[in-house]
Amino acid sequence: xxxLIWPTTFGADLWALAxxxxxxxxxxxxxxxxxxxxxxxxxxxxFRTVNARFVRRRPWHSLLGEASAGGRLLGGxxxxxxxxxxxxxxxxxxGPRPDVTVMDNRVPMRASxxxxxxxxxxxxxxxxxxxxxxxxxxxxxxxxxxxxxRPNPRFRWAVFGPWDEKHRTEVSGFHPDNIVSIxxxxxxxxxxxxxxxxxxxxxDLDILNRPTVLFAPTWHYGEVFAHWGSLAEQIxxxxxxxxxxxxxxxxxxxxxxxxxxxxxxxxSRTLIQTTSWICRWPMCF
Length: 285
Known about the structure:
By secondary structure, the protein is an alpha/beta fold. Helix content is 30%, strand content 12%.
């Protein structure tokens, strides 16, 4: 089987799925990223290598669909899987077309494979991710893989559990037959014991002797917790940032690597507060 992973955000669940599939002897994995070098530069990419080919996604790949899922792999050919059909396209490798495309948000304009799996990057209750909000997504899925509001053997939507399944079927509008409950793919990875001694050479932060705080705001968080006030108010009111003496007692890596998405989801007060932190602790960002 050949699996194409088509991320909008190559987050924990897609990463964990790619790593898991990469260890299966009968699965070939391709990860299509706009900037694969940015991922390869991350500590986790060097510490825990994913057994997959990483290719650069170009704007026309989404338009070409299956026609783009072929070409030459720099450094050697890839073994044939599935039907054994090889195609000449523009994703940068030689081999069969994907059997399944795994997405977390955006869908290719044309199908890159016959089957599609949506591993959405978040819970539905953040959205609200109702049918009105997801009108564009339903159109995209229908165009590439068929209508997801009706039983569709070509498409599945992965959910985290009963609560998420209820939301996706009753609010988001996906037919129950198209739902598959697989839990949080990254859960097993997060439960593993991580040896900080082994990790330390891959990080500039001192993770052995100093506590680390990860502040990772992302899409819609300001709205999700709006009943507690804005994100800036929540953090500033608790005075948590000033309680941490970052210059002496800790390092705080701020995850702003996906700036185009999370930062545009915040109100002006949150942006001003975050900017002040960047100015005060530039080495933490």
